[in-house]
Amino acid sequence: FSGAQLAGFAPACVLGLLLFSLLYVQLARPMQLYINGVPTVLVQDEAQAQALLEEVKTELAALYPAAANLRYEADLTFSKSGVEVKAKSAEASEIRTVLKEKLDWKVDASAIQVNQAKTAVLASTEEAESVLDTVKRAYLPSNGNVTLVEAEFVEPIEVVTVEASIRELDSATEAVQLLTQGTEKIEEYVLKAGDSLWTIASENDTSVEALQAANPNVGEKSLQIGEVLKLAKAEPMVSVKTVIKAVNEEKIPYSTVYEKDSSAFKGQQSVVKAGTEGKKAVTYEIAQVNGVELERKVIAETVVAEPVNKIVKTGTKTIVASRGGGGSGVLAWPIRGRINSPFGQRGRGYHTGIDIDANKGDPIYASAGGTVTQASYSGGYGNCVIIDHGDGLSTLYAHLSKLSVSVGQKVSRSELIGLAGSTGNSTGPHLHFEVRVNGGYKNPINYLN
User: Fold this and answer.
1) What CATH number does residue 263 fall under?
2) Which domain holds residue 86?
3) Using one digit for the tens of pLDDT, what is the confidence trace for 60-81?
4) Which residues contact 89 (CB under 8 A, 6 or more apart)?
5) What is the CATH number for 206?
6) What is the C-alpha separation between 105 and 169, in angstroms, rounded?
7) 278 with 251: CB under 8 angstroms?
8) Which secondary-structure segment (H or E) carries 361?
9) What are the C-alpha distances in Å from 221 to residues 9, 205, 217, 277?
10) Which of 207, 278, 395, 406 has its CA at a distance of 20 to 30 angstroms from the CA of residue 289?
11) Where does residue 236 rank: exposed (0-12), middle (13-18), buried (19+ CB within 10 A)?
12) Sequence-distant (≥ 6) Cβ neighbours of residue 446 within 8 angstroms
């Protein structure tokens, strides 16, 4: 080509380059993605947006595998109008986030209705049924001696198919918590020094009764610093009624059989054979609601071991006081002397024995053979000796100036046990002498020869 010809092509080349540049800029400029007419994010082109949309759908389908018919309901439009020439498309991760969060993704889900009101929404019917089964099992017996008869919900409950946003879906754990604890938030309080149920209730606008209801295992005396208390009682949205059978081992009380013994005096008793409690297996049918017992009835009893009766011999021999003022002769006189104070009412009080006149240092003898159970100073009795003669009979010797025996010692009838004196609550030397039968005070005169 000649120079003139090349010069003629120049304007055309320049115009071509200009058009190509304008076309390139137009093609390279990102597009604004509108969701329901609202601008959200810049994308390279519609193809990129559609590809990322499929990726998001696949990701959500993996998160909710049990949900059916995953979809979104929105109008997506694209436009380069108003987008600056130098604008850049957003990163793919940002576009995915926008598509995930801005679109209202929906599924065909299953709702648990309690009293015809929707409570929890699960991804599938199988998940909803599993949640209800978990709620039931929370109140089933774990004890090996307990068996379940039946378990049912008190309220009418239904699982229905609903259209739900994925934001509405509850996890199985959330659904169980919702049904068993309700929607009320349970606040907690950490105990500190000086706290009491009353002060905690006062500070938190509640009552002691409400605190005790929310924390049934906590008592005023068992509060510990650092312990966590619930400030509100959870109110479950459903109630589970269970009927269980429980087998308990219980004691059978023994009976006491009294046998007459003509060789022992009236009032004297001796145990011939100790009693033994029996055992029985008792089967109860127990009705509960949310673990709280409503009713219990016995449906069976089986005796495991029969009780063994306690056998006690009781004396029938009558004690007759002699006309000459003497007694039955069961006991010997511990010392001979005048009776200064008899048995029975004395002024405003009651004299539980007899007072026999004596000089300090006079010997005191055992009224009958037996075992010394006390030989020591004892308050108003002063130096005192008690002898157990068996069959419930014992004698007491008080105000002694000296003790000649010790606890556990075996003594014979008329054996020296001490010396008369005036120790304890006493106005002068004498012997205070008591006769006791099975712990009761008796008139010694009726026993002395």
Assistant:
1) 2.20.230.10
2) 3-103
3) 999 888 888 899 989 999 999 9
4) 30, 42, 43, 44, 48
5) 3.10.350.10
6) 11
7) yes
8) none
9) 106, 22, 11, 35
10) 207
11) middle
12) 319, 321, 327, 328, 435
What are the distances in angstroms from CA 386 to CA 393, 400, 416? 11, 12, 13
Strand partners, 257: 311
The answer to whether the CB of 389 falls within 8 A of the CB of 368 is yes
**Cα four-point dihedral sign 348, 349, 350, 351:** negative
The strand ranges marked E within 370-425 are 370-377, 383-390, 393-400, 402-403, 410-411, 416-419
For residue 331, is it within any domain? no
pTM, 2 dp: 0.52
Residue 352: strand, helix, or coil? coil
Structural domain ending residue among the three candidates 204, 230, 256: 230
Render pLDDT for 86-135 as a digit per residue (tens, 0 to 9).
899 999 999 999 999 999 999 999 999 999 999 999 999 999 999 999 99
The residue behind tokens 């020869």 is 449
Q: Are residues 429 and 344 in the same domain?
A: yes
CA-closest candidate to residue 147, choices 286, 289, 292, 295: 286
Q: Which two tokens stand for residue 116?
A: 């015809």
> CA 414 to CA 35: how far, in whole Å?
119
Q: Is residue 235 part of a domain?
A: no
Domains: count for the chain: 5
Q: Are residues 118 and 143 in the same domain?
A: yes
Q: Is residue 247 part of a domain?
A: yes
* Whether 109 contacts 125, CB under 8 Å: no
Q: Which amino acid is residue 113, in one-letter code?
A: Q
